[in-house]
């Protein structure tokens, strides 16, 4: 008997559902308190859909300009350490009945360039492993139009 609620072949349904749960309710994630403000460039140098990879001490971070604003995520894949932020950005599909494809997380899924693990840029949550997550950082724009990342 087949499961009427399967997702794509190879998909970890539990992980995908967890990623969407967090995307729908990001307050459910415990967030570390970060107070160090670092200017990483000007907001107008990154167009919507663009990104900039910055180095802050030993920490490499990707700053992405998504449709809803700026987001920052650690440039390190928890699988085998690839530069995650050099991967492609796209969407995924929400879990649903077999044969039904409902787009989700459009423009905010980052795919690792090495082996294709995917992460939600906004929450850092992995889409294929319910336990995986990459650190994300708050990004603000100051009065001078500069991007400020809290680390
Ligand atoms: S190093 Fe990122 S998926 Fe393998």
Helix content: under 10%
What is the architecture at the second tier of CATH? 3-layer Sandwich
Distance between the termini: 50 Å
Largest sheet: number of strands, sense, barrel closure:
4 strands, antiparallel
Overall shape: globular
CATH class: Mainly Beta
Low-confidence stretches: 1-5
What would your notes on this structure say?
The chain is 8% helix and 37% strand. It has one domain (13-150): Rieske [2Fe-2S] iron-sulphur domain (Rieske Iron-sulfur Protein), CATH 2.102.10. It is mainly β. A hairpin with a 2-residue loop joins strand 3 and strand 4 (69-74). It is globular. It is built from 1 helix and 10 strands, in the order αββββββββββ. It has one helix at 13-24, and strands at residues 37-42, 51-56, 59-66, 69-74, 88-94, 102-111, 118-120, 136-137, 139-141, 146-150. The strands form 3 sheets. Strands 2-3-4-8 form a 4-stranded antiparallel beta sheet, with no helix packed on it. Bound molecules: FE2/S2 (inorganic) cluster (FES). FE2/S2 (inorganic) cluster binds next to loops. Residues 77, 79-80, 82, 112, 114-117 line the site of FE2/S2 (inorganic) cluster (FES).
For the structure shown, list the relevant keywords.
3-stranded antiparallel β-sheet, single chain, mainly beta, 4-stranded antiparallel β-sheet, binds FE2/S2 (inorganic) cluster, Rieske Iron-sulfur Protein, 151 residues, globular
């Amino acid at each position: 008997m087949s499961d009427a609620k399967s997702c794509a072949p190879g998909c970890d349904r539990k992980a995908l559902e967890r990623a969407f749960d967090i995307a729908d309710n990001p307050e459910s994630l415990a967030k570390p308190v970060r107070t160090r403000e670092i200017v990483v460039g000007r907001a107008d140098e990154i167009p919507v859909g663009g990104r900039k990879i910055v180095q802050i001490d030993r920490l490499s971070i990707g700053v992405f300009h998504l449709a809803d604003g700026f987001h920052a995520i650690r440039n390190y894949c928890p699988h085998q350490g690839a530069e995650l932020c050099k991967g492609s950005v796209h969407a995924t599909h929400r879990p649903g009945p077999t044969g039904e494809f409902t787009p989700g997380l459009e423009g905010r899924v980052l795919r690792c360039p090495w082996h294709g693990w995917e992460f939600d840029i906004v929450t850092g949550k992995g889409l294929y492993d319910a336990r995986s997550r990459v650190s994300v950082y708050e990004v603000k724009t100051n009065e001078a139009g500069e991007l400020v990342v809290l680390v």
